[in-house]
Each structure stands twice: as structure tokens, then as C-alpha cells.
Amino acid sequence: MADTGTWPTGRTLGYGGDYNPEQWPRETRDEDVRLMAEAGVNFVSVGIFSWALLEPREGEYDFAWMDELLDLLHAAGIAVDLATPTAAPPAWFYATYPEARVVTRDGVPLGPGSRGACSPSHPAYRAAARNIASRIAERYADHPAVVMWHVHNEYGAPVGEDYSDAAVAAWRTWLADRYGTLDALNDAWGTRFWGQVYGEWEHVQAPGPTPATVNQAQQLDYARFTDHQLRALFVAERDAIREHSDKPVTTNFMANECPTTDLWAWAREVDVVSNDHYLTAADPRGHVGLSLAADLTRSVAGGRPWILMEHSTSAVNWQGRNVAKRPGEMARNSLAHVARGADVVGFFQWRASRYGAEKFHSAMLPHAGTGSRVWQEVVSLGADVGALAELQGSTVQARVALLWDTESFWAQDLPWRPSDDLRHRERTRAYYERLWRDGMTVDFAHPTADLSRYALVVAPASYLLTADAAANLTRYVAAGGTLVVSCFAAVVDEHDAVHPGGYGAPLRDVLGLRVEEFLPLRAGESGTVTWTYDGATTALGAPVWAEDLALDGAEVAAHHADGRAAGGPAVTRHEHGDGVAWYVSVPLDVDGLAPVLAAACADAGIAPSDTAEDVEVVVRHGHDADYVLAINHTEAAATVSGVEGTDLLHGGAVGPDLKVPAGDVAVVRMGPGPAAAGAGGPSGPEPRTTESRRRADATTFDEEER
User: Fold this and answer.
1) Hey, which of 117, 218, 464, 699 has its CA 20 to 30 A from 646?
2) 426 noted as active-site residue
3) Which of 55, 154, 329, 377 is catalytic?
4) 392-425, pLDDT tens digit by residue?
5) CATH number listed for the domain at residues 42-260
6) What is the pTM of this model?
């Protein structure tokens, strides 16, 4: 999909969002299209929640309003990502097929009146979903406005696990396909423990409420089953569309925010990867979480360009405290996604809703109208995105990879782990943020993937690590790679059973040590480790967790200064083959990880950037030029050294250093570019000065922060 001839937006970047005109009187549409032109919108998603309007009664269809809408958008030059509306089953479906409702773990059926979906396992829902998808695709397969298809919406949110009768029946079928025999199932689940052995398939239930914790292998398999059922529902709709159209099909992921979906498996089923991302308002460093989500999305897309289907112009509506974005923050957020591989910048939604659950959700056209700061920033951002047309199809390359395995996360989140305080999300964010602060562009990778192109691989949360994955990591190091493994790693296999040989056994050779015992700390306790590697002596905080390690060839880089492991190794380094493996047995914070990752980077032959912290710099590589995108998240002007070329947003030549004003973004073409090279690429709008990119009557980032 990275080829410019097949990319849905053609030879330009996309800009727009969800468009739901059915919420408004007919006459509003003409104004919408006029304002979309003013804002530079060229790409919208339509029909995501419109099942009740397209099929008002079972088997009766009304496409007239959609016909008119698509014609109107096409006449305005706006490309359409046409959705199947199956995330919002109509009231008649719930009334006709009440048994198709999702049932919670506690046995409560979920009814209409909200967003979501019915049971992905129920035949009536699957049939109805496939039918409406087929009807829409048949009617609009050749409509010139439609450039791609958008199936459903945010699978797994809010509907993930389902415990209905239909789900339980499908669960047994899934298990029979996976294990073949009950003997194999009993072995995989370890059912001899607590006398859980099954003698008949119909005795196997979903892991619902029990007197004590449910068999953990059973729970892990139910997470796999849930993901499979959601994905099978997507495939059914996708295949219904493909019977009528060969245009690309996608669905919007939620990257690291939706724990019920295995992104690696989902990415294999879509033609182009799309993602929705919303800042966590409680996170004062939400821009780092944004970069993590964008890098993860690019990685599951296989490094190809991807679509930011949704994010927000300002505040969202569902968090406890929905913090509005500061002036300029929307542009920084949007262009950070572009920097990390997005070729479309989309929002939810075009026009703010007057009623319903999302009436307080920000929009491109806010309640305050076209006189508002948000609207002016939307128009300004549209011009910026238009000026970056030549970036379309360029890619991002990284020399560092973080391992990401959803199945391991599912397993670690199960109950009765050694410490509630050791969380995979926190560890992943800590390692990612350390690398982000050091200016390292990061890919995410599955533990079984080919890692040979990376100088450094980090395993921040690999509680579940299969023997094959461990062998892959061992080969990577032996071939000259540098590996950093965090604590509580390689503890269990794919059935959540402790590996033969004990904790961490599959990595024993590459790490040069044994993990003899876990030593979790009590709530509120913290320890200290002393970093002594390479002549440096530094005290590092070690909260939450420690481990009792027995060395088998590894050298010690940091010792425990206190606690039950006092005097014992805390961080180790081991040469294996032509490479090096580090083990960090304590959950160091972002600052504490600095010396560890600096040493690992030195082993890997890479160095942190000297750019100021919170100045984000990423390079996109094109056929004719490379593009440096620099995003200044600070209150002061910043300098990025060694950047020479043409500033596509501000205009003019840059070099030998790039100056980025406080709160601003710069995009620099480092080569001759498509126009100079005779490639005939679009030039976009005229570059504008920094001042013209700010709204004249708005408070600037610098002034607001002061």
C-alpha cells in the first residue's frame, strides 16, 4: 500500500476525519463542504454508526441519503473511506435477536442504547453484519468518491470478551480445533492441579466467576479466543466487501490502548493499517505516549505508511478530567504522527455533536464555530499538511527495537502474580521513554521476528516467552546483536506454565545467569542499586521488585546496596557469541535507565542524540530526498545540529543547523526533492512564516507558558 499509485489519497497526504452529517439537518452539508475546502480537508470517513438509517427495518434499505452525500463529497474533491456500520446494531436487531447480545463475565446481557456491538460469535449478528457490508459494497463499489473501505469501528472497544451461550459454544469448537483432543487440552491447562480434569467437551465452560482464581491457562486461551472471534467477524465483512470491490480495506486499531486485540495478527488481515489515538489527559508527558503509539502502529504496518484515522483537536469526552489542548499542541500532535509514518491525519470528528455521549468531545468544527482558536488551528494545520504532500510514501527506519507481545501481556495481567506493582505497561513506557529522550527512533517487534537489522533490541516486558522466541533472541545476540532484557522475563511458556529448569531458563545461556527467586517489595518500599560499570559509580533507585540472581558467566554492572538482595547482582552484562546481552533485574525508572541504556548503546555502536530533551526529531526517507521533522515540545527555542535543506513549512534554506521556535514544528527536505528532481510531485501551498502559522489573536505557546 505504500506505492503512490495505490495509496488511497493518491500523491498527497490525507487530512480530515469522521463525518457524520446524519446528525444534522440536510442544509448543513453544503456549509460543511464549503468549510472543508477552507480547512484543506481531502479525506473523510462516512457511515460508521449509520446502520439504523441504511437498514431502518430488517431487509429494508434506504441509500438515497448516502447516494446524495457521496455525490456531494466527490464533487468537492473529497475522498471517502466508506464504513460498514456494524459497530452500532440498530434497535430492531436487538429486539429481533435478543439472544445475540453480549453477556458479561457476571452473566449480564448488554442491551442497546449505547455504542458497541453484539456477540461476535452469534450467527444472527454475523449474518446481519455480513449482509449490510455486502449491500453497501455492492452499491458503492464503483462510486468515484470511495477510495477505501472501513470495517466496523475499534474492535475490542468497548466490547471485548463475551460469555453468551453462542460464545461458549464457539469456544468449545475453537478449543477442539486448537488441541484436537481433551487429553491435549488437559495437558496444556495443567488440569490435574486442583482436580480440574475434563472428560467431555460440553463440560468445558468459559472462565466465569469461580470460588478462587480461574485456571490461568484457560484464561489465557480465552483471551486468544476473544481476539480470534473479533478478527473472524472482521474477516467476514472484509470478504463480503471483496466480492464487489478490490479497493483497500481497513479497520481502525487502538494500538496500545485496546488490550483485547493482537495487533500483529490483525495487521495481516488489513490492506492498510489505521489507528486511533487519544492523549491520556492525566499524563503530563502525553506526547511521549503518542510517539509510542505511532511507532507501534508503524511497526505492525511493517514499516509502510499508515493512517491516523482519529485523534482529537482538543479535549476528549470520556476521561475523568478532559484537559483541553494548548495553542499549537494539536499541530505538534498531528505532525508527530506524520513524523512517525502516518500519511493521513484524521480526527474524530468533523462537526461537534449537539447531543449524545460525545457532545463534549472536541471537533474540527467546534461548538464555538469558525471564530474560535481551534478552528483557526484546524485551517492552519490543513495548509501545513498540504505543504507536505511530497512526504507521501516515505518511510521511517530504526536501529532499535522494543519487543511487543500481546499474549505475554495477557498472561502477565492474570491474577496471582508475585507483585501487583510490576506492570508490563509501565515497564514498556519506561524503556521507550528513555530511548525517546535519548533521541532514538524505535520500532516494535514480535519476539519471533527477524531482528537482524537492529543494532539494539530491548525486551521490557517478556514474562511469557516461548522456547522458539528465546532461541530467536539467543541467535540474534550470537550473531552480533545487543540485547537488553528487563526483569520478570521468560518466566512461563505459551500455556502460562513455568519453563522447565525454572525462571528465565530459556535465556540462561545468553544472559549468563540463573534467576533463583523473586523478591518483590512491600507497598511503599524501595531499594537502591549501585551502578559501577565502566568506572562510573551511581546510586539508582530500585522500587517494587528485586531478584536473587546466580551468575553463570555474566559480569556485574550494578549491585544491590540494600534489602534482601544486598550485595547481590542487580544489572549484568554477558558476552555471548559475537554480541552482548544485558539483564536488568530491577524496575529502574526513566532516569535510572539512562546509564544502563547508554552502556548498551555503546555495545551496539549507536549513540544518543545531543538534541535538547523534549525536542523530537525523526527522519522520513523518500525516493528523492530525506525529510527531517523536528517538533519542539519545550518553552524555549531549540537547535537541531547538522540539518541542511529546505524548510517546507516556513520556507527558505536551512543550515548548517535548524532553529525550531518554542512549541513549533519544522520539516526540512534534505535532498533536491521531487520538484527539483523532475518527479512532478505536488508543491502544495506557499510556505508560510512562523508568525503567519499562528493565529493572530491567539496567545502563543511561549506567552501562555510564561
Assistant:
1) 699
2) no
3) 154
4) 999 999 999 999 999 999 999 999 999 999 999 9
5) 3.20.20.80
6) 0.94
